[in-house]
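ok trying this again, last paste got cut off
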Amino acid sequence: MQRYAQGRVGLRTLPVGAGAEALRPSTSSPTTGADLITHLLRRARGALAVTIAAGALLTVSVPAHAAAAPPLTAAGAFLLDANSGATLTSKAPDTRRQMASTTKIMTAAVVTTLPGLNLDRRVTVKQEYLDYVYREGASSAQLKAGATPTVRQLLYAMMLPSGCDAAYALADTFGSGSTIAARKADFIAKMNAKAKALGMTNTLYDTFDGISPTGNNRTTPRDLAKLARYAMTNTLFQTLVKTTSYSSGGTSTLGTWSNTNLLVQPRPTGYGFPGATGIKTGTGTAAGKCLVFSVTRNGKTVIGVLLNDEERYADSMALSDWALGPAAGSKAALQRSSTEPVPDVRD
């Protein structure tokens, strides 16, 4: 049962008994001057209790983000609280768009959650992977035919420099079938099955790396944020996407890979954004510039998605500061002198 008090602050819910005297009609009328004074004092105390209770309720009801979310240049965007899953702000959250190399988040999610995964398993790099990258003009980890990287190394090669050759190797390795084409198709089916299991109802994958043969490799900001939140619960995935660079040992067939996500890269090659922990970039002719990002401060984490956004880094930093509050150095991250231009990368 609840009671309500109507005053200048509007209708406020009061617990039973809070300011109850102020809400009850008087059962008797004052008959003397002393009675009148006593009556007025009692009513004043009750009114004060109502005001205090209403004020307390008003304080509790103030939203965490009293200020409006910053304007965005992204065609589609989504920001959520990673702990609760609550939506913080969005822009065209359910409009389906191409996602470019952010597709590789799902590729990694499928591989890293496979039962009995052996990260030290060796995979032979095939010439077909390299020919594919050349034909498509795709981003590459510069793998070489005949090299035998581990599954762990291939995951870094895919998620840091956004290597489509590494993504191809993983799809060919973990898909089922007697031919490369069959194994690729089976792996993509695994991606779509996981999307369905996660409730990504507006997402369809037709590729393992974001290079869509049909133009139908699409998702929504809401779906992609849902995937990112799921992926970031995996400790291996967390480690992959927050790594700034990874050396495979300096052999002649494998090199050192740098993360294309400039939020996590230190200055001057990146933004060194305080609290940035991942997760993946993507760029394509149809998709534009995309970014899925994660930022943690004071025990709170936000995950954001920006699709088709020429200002993906400025927007991601503005959203993070709005949701989490600025950190030391966060405002300076965007400040560049004429000799230190704002960085960006192809993917």
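PB: full thing came through this time. The chain is about 35% helix and 15% strand.
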